[in-house]
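Appendix B. One record, verbatim.
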Amino acid sequence: MKKIFSIVALVSFLASCGGGTQGQLVGVKGKKWHPEKPYGMTTVPGGSFIMGKSDDDLAGLSNAPTKTVTVRSFYMDETEITNSEYRQFVNWTRDSIVRQRLAEEAEIAGGGDGSQGGGGKGGSINDFAFKGSSSENDDTETPYQQYSKHYDPNNQRLNWKPELIWEAADYPDESYVYVMDEIYLPMEQSYNGQRLMDVTQFKYNYKYMDIEAAARSNGDRASFIKTEEVEVYPDTTVWVKDFNYSYNEPMHNDYFWHAAYDDYPVVGVSWQQAKAFCDWRTLLHNGYKVEKGKQRVRQYRLPSEAEWEYAARGGLESATYPWGGPYTKNDRGCFLANFKPLRGDYAADQALYTVEAESYEPNDYNLYNMSGNVAEWVNSSYDAASYEYYSSMNPNVNDPENARKVVRGGSWKDVAYFLQVSSRDYEYADSSRSYIGFRTVQDYSSNDLDLNQPPQ
């Protein structure tokens, strides 16, 4: 028996060696891959620059001494994430929560396996039953729908085939009514003839691994996998809470959901919510890639502080602002950003609050509003002394124990000092403000650093 096994093993070895390699070391090739610039992003070619204050430190903070650092190439959103884009995240989370609860109620009601009906309105709550384990194949659900799913601890796949029914008059049965009633606020909390959803229920669940901690430890990697649950709806009350004795109710009521503000930057989003958005955007894009059998994309994330400043400078060395400087007006006397000029004359720059995300002229990397409009979260913790000890190669300091996270760029309510590309500020990770938004980046899969020939 041992002899027969040896012969089989030898034949297998010879077959594998002769399978087109002729016994040569040819390597194992991955899937065919081509760099693909994500929609709405621009390429920021890597390089070195002098980070920190090149002018006098007028505020006397001494938190940004000059230091030469190098960053790798990456993609960055041309604009801040807009209300419309963030609503796509909120709506996806909302729909996932509703489908999850419909599926759970279908199980309680003794429903089927989700295979019956479900092509449109009508039917019953059984149309929304779970599709079984996410490891199973089901030709009634596309790979994109299988992959882009709300995280379920029991590894159950949601049924995305049937349309959700939002009109109360069209609810198919009592079980469906029960689930939807739980999603909406009680009638005693409604007014003006509107019944609103309880947005505190819109929670996004995701997992990630603390790779830095895992790499420095010999422990079980499972202990470094974290699970996060984040309420995704922005805090619209910031328009009232941020300003005492000020009438801002129209912004509280309309800014996030009204179509008039679709292309304005989202605000009222915490650092934690911005991180959850990055995870969801990666999930969404990879869902499409998996469906098409293509290589998965690199992770979307918040930029590091160094990446943000490098991108904001747009290739200009020692510039004060993204457009150069040292002035905030052009040669025609027009302001170059949305901020608080002239000792508090908010209207002098033709804007009272925020402006559309694609306003004013972009910098030389085609990035809009890197100064002004809304300040932006970055993936770095604030430490006044961090420039003194961080690495000069792709520097970043993100201490999980430090809840103070850096915000950059200044906003519509800030004076010109905070618009300087080297100015640093911070807010707490769980806080949200009417003047803080964010934009995302994605790593570029190359080490190209040629500034004259940026990767495409």
